[in-house]
Design goal:
The complex is a heterodimer. Chain A is mostly helical. A two-stranded antiparallel ribbon of chain A has the order 1-2. Helices cover about 70% and strands about 0% of the residues of chain A. Chain A has 18 helices and two strands. Chain B has two domains: about 220 residues, Rossmann fold (3-Layer(aba) Sandwich), CATH 3.40.50; about 60 residues, 2-Layer Sandwich (Alpha-Beta Plaits), CATH 3.30.70. Chain B has eleven helices and 14 strands. In chain B, helix 4 crosses helix 5. Chain B is elongated, with a radius of gyration of 24 Å. The chains are: A mainly alpha, B alpha/beta. The interface between A and B is medium-sized, with 25 and 31 residues.
Chain lengths: ~475, ~300
């Protein structure tokens, strides 16, 4: 048996096919890592203004008359934008200053320009706005973003106090509830502002700044579920709720522990299986789809079948070799991505563990990143093995390589459509079909299955059942087959 | 000592409703070289595939070295070497890699044995080339090499002379005779061309339309064939026939065909001369083994 397996491996590695496929895969990996490096600059950037914006607004201004009442608000708006862009241009688009300019200074500028072009603004208000503008510019130049964070915090606190006072005067429970809701969302804002100061996160685009924004939006979204019975949500609502819960907790964890997950090599490593799944499948399906049929087509099967090994052993050793090739391919892709990603985008991010939210324990967990990717791989294994076995079975039953390669790929492509179709029309029997069951990563960390009522052991059972059917069918056909003239 | 190596009993094989083999029986002992002769489509390859377990036997029995091929496949096939139809080898590998692959499947085969076999078939100079670069004759030799690697005691060669030039056939003959003498192998060679096998075999077996029509020693057959026909050219064929009687046939007005052993010819000539018949020439009609067999098989009709 070992001899047979060794021979099959030798046959595969003496052929060019596997090398060509692996070279293409590795070439693609290099390319995608380089692309990632090139496009990285735009990953966290935010464009408050574009190159031609000033010309656009100035063009608008020349057509508008500030004395015409109907055109005034448009005129003012364009004028404000022109002034802001001019101001922000000194600091650049991707700076915390640009954020403050377009979120806070915009109010001062509005007041100032309104005063200059019309009435309705008092001298005091104008003066205050002017002072604020000058102070802001001074803070911009000394890089003092903390001033603005403190200002934010002060404003939130005064709003909170105001709301508490409103609550005392509230007359109806519904009014009280609405005030409570406002207080809750203000508290979230307060938390964000406090974190910003404590963890030293400026307003400029960065991973942690995004995390702060995410925390605020997901926590606010969760407030909507405060009085809802989670068990009564339909599946769409439930997945939205869970996504908000997960993201809120993860953002919180990143902020509290000052973890920035912005290493490119780490990200592409963690997404190994979604990025390169197709390539892994191509290698494995081409090998499994030809391993039996090619021997029939070339006539070498006769050479093999008159050796002192029964047909079961011959077929089984070929199947074992397909599994070995699968693991080998995954291993090569795993190590290649580590090396290629590391060389192109740096090895530093790989010390950071994988961070996941566990729905069962309601805690964020840290997992060694190398282990985490292997766990993801193990969850994908049923799908890979079943597609491989489908190729192997077609190869054995039809002795036709083209068919044996095409069928599993069509199955792979169709599987997501089948699942969507079943979800759409609520087909319950789909539970017993293989496609909703062969990806176990849904069950990780208390995750929801694709269909209600599926469990991990049930899915594994279904996968084993399909595997057994395919293998037994191949074996019976292979054992019974008369070797015709070739 | 003669040991029975291969024994086929009453083999039947159907493809759908068509009966391909209608009761084939064969025996091979060690040292035998059995020529398995028959026209195309007679069932030679099918018989060989049944013997090797490549196709299921509908009824009948194959025993190799005492083991039934159906129930005890691994033991039955262990000491068999074979080339079926073409020497199908892995074209993308070198000759040596092919042999090593086969050797892996037999624990007894050493590297020394591989070199020995390569020398035996005369492939030393090209053994590291890819098989795809080999000529058909070289592949045939490599096929023989892989078949005898594990020192089988039964060698089955299906049409091994296909594509070989006369030199190649001579080499193969010498090799097979050597194997049967020195290693005491039993050898089964199939061919549709009897003339090529004449010089190899000590036994022949003729198959026609799925039935064995003749099994005998080559010497018996040769003896039968040597009872010759003689053509005598003379002036009056009718009168000559009256004189010689039943052993002759008039071919035309001036030729008669006489079936007789050599020693009788002078007597026949004497009788004719005494009766005043003019004899112009006597020629011996040469009958090869093949002609002798063609007469027996009468041509194969594929039905």
């Amino acid at each position: 048996m070992i001899n047979l397996i060794g021979n099959e491996l030798k046959k595969i590695f003496k052929k060019k096919t596997i090398y060509i496929l692996l070279i293409i895969t590795i070439g693609y990996m290099i390319l995608s890592n380089v692309m990632l490096r090139i496009t990285n600059d735009s990953m966290y950037s935010y464009y408050y203004f574009m190159d031609g914006d000033i010309e656009y607004y100035e063009n608008n201004l020349s057509d508008l008359d500030p004395n015409n009442e109907s055109e005034f608000s448009m005129f003012l708006n364009s004028k404000v934008q022109v002034e802001l862009i001019k101001l922000a241009d000194d600091y650049g688009n991707n700076t915390w200053q640009a954020y403050i300019i377009f979120n806070r200074v915009i109010d001062y500028m509005n007041t100032i320009l309104r005063y200059e072009y019309s009435d309705g603004i008092t001298d005091e208000a104008y003066k205050e706005a002017k002072d604020n503008l000058n102070l802001a510019i001074e803070k911009f130049n000394t890089n003092d973003w903390r001033y603005f964070a403190n200002e934010d915090l002060k404003e939130i606190n005064s709003s909170l106090e105001e709301q508490y006072n409103f609550k005392k005067q509230a007359v109806s429970p519904s009014e009280e509830a609405s005030i409570d809701r406002t207080i809750s969302s203000l508290n979230i804002e307060k938390q964000v502002a406090e974190w910003r100061l404590e963890k030293n996160i400026d307003y400029g685009p960065s991973f942690l700044n995004t995390a702060l924004n995410d925390y605020s939006s997901y926590s606010t979204a969760l407030l909507d579920y405060a009085n809802t019975d989670i068990d009564e949500l339909d599946s769409d609502e439930l997945s939205q709720y869970r996504s908000a819960l997960e993201n809120m907790n993860l953002s919180k964890y990143y902020i509290e522990n000052s973890i920035s997950l912005d290493s490119l090599s780490r990200n592409s490593f963690i997404n190994l299986f979604s990025n390169y799944e197709l390539f892994i499948l191509i290698v494995v399906i081409v090998i499994a789809g030809s391993i039996v049929s090619e021997e029939f087509n070339k006539g070498t099967i006769k050479l093999l079948l008159v050796k002192p090994y029964n047909r079961f052993k011959i077929l089984f050793s070929k199947f074992v070799v397909c599994l070995i090739i699968l693991l080998l391919t995954i291993g090569i892709v795993y190590i290649s991505q580590l090396l290629i990603g590391g060389i192109i985008n740096g090895f530093d991010g790989l010390n950071t563990p994988a961070i996941v939210y566990n729905f069962d324990t309601n805690h964020v967990e840290e997992i060694n990143i190398f282990v985490y990717v292997i766990i993801l791989g193990i969850c994908k294994l049923p799908m890979y093995i079943l597609l491989l076995t489908l190729a192997f079975a077609c190869s054995t039953i039809f002795a036709n390589t083209a068919l044996a390669v095409a069928v599993p790929f069509l199955g792979y492509i169709a599987s997501s459509i089948i699942n969507q179709f079943a979800l759409l029309y609520k087909l319950d029997w789909i539970k017993y079909f293989v496609t909703p069951n062969w990806d176990l990563s849904y069950y990780l960390f208390g995750g929801l299955p694709l269909f209600k009522g599926l469990t991990a052991p049930f899915s594994i059972l279904i996968c084993v059942l399909y595997l057994a059917i395919l293998l037994i069918l191949s074996l019976v056909v292979f054992k019974k087959r008369d070797i015709k003239n070739i | 000592m003669q040991n029975l190596i291969l024994k086929c009993e009453n083999l039947h094989k159907n493809f759908r409703k068509k009966e391909i083999l209608k009761g084939v029986s064969l025996e091979i002992s060690n040292g035998d070289i059995l020529g398995f002769i028959g026209p195309n489509g007679a069932g030679k390859t099918t018989t060989i595939k049944l013997i090797l377990g490549l196709q299921k036997i509908n009824s009948g029995k194959v025993e190799i070295n005492g083991f039934d091929i159906k129930t005890n496949f691994e033991k039955a096939i262990a000491k068999v070497g074979a080339i079926i139809e073409n020497p199908d080898l892995y074209m993308y590998m070198s000759g040596l890699d092919n042999l090593k692959l086969i050797a892996n499947l037999y624990p007894s085969v050493t590297d020394k044995r591989i070199l020995e076999v390569i020398k035996l078939v005369g492939l030393e100079n090209r053994i590291n080339d890819k098989v795809s670069k080999y000529s058909l004759g070289m592949r045939q030799r490599l096929g023989v090499a892989q078949a005898i690697l594990h020192k089988p005691n039964l060698l089955i060669l299906d049409e091994p002379t296909n594509g070989l030039d006369p030199e190649g056939i001579k080499d193969l003959r010498n090799l097979l005779i050597k194997l049967s003498k020195e290693e005491n192998m039993g050898i089964l060679i199939s061919s549709h061309n009897l003339a090529e096998l004449e010089s190899f075999c000590n036994k022949v077996c003729i198959i026609k339309n799925g039935i064995i029509v003749e099994t005998s020693d080559i010497d018996t057959v040769k003896k039968e064939a040597s009872e010759g026909n003689y053509i005598i050219e003379l002036d009056d064929a009718k009168r000559a026939r009256l004189i010689i009687g039943d052993i002759s046939i008039a071919k035309d007005n001036t030729h008669i065909l006489v079936h007789a052993i050599k020693e009788d010819i002078p007597n026949i000539v004497k009788k004719l001369v005494l009766q005043d018949i003019q004899i112009y020439s006597i020629t011996e009609e040469i009958i090869s083994l093949e002609d002798a067999f063609l007469k027996k098989t009468g041509g194969n009709v594929i039905d």
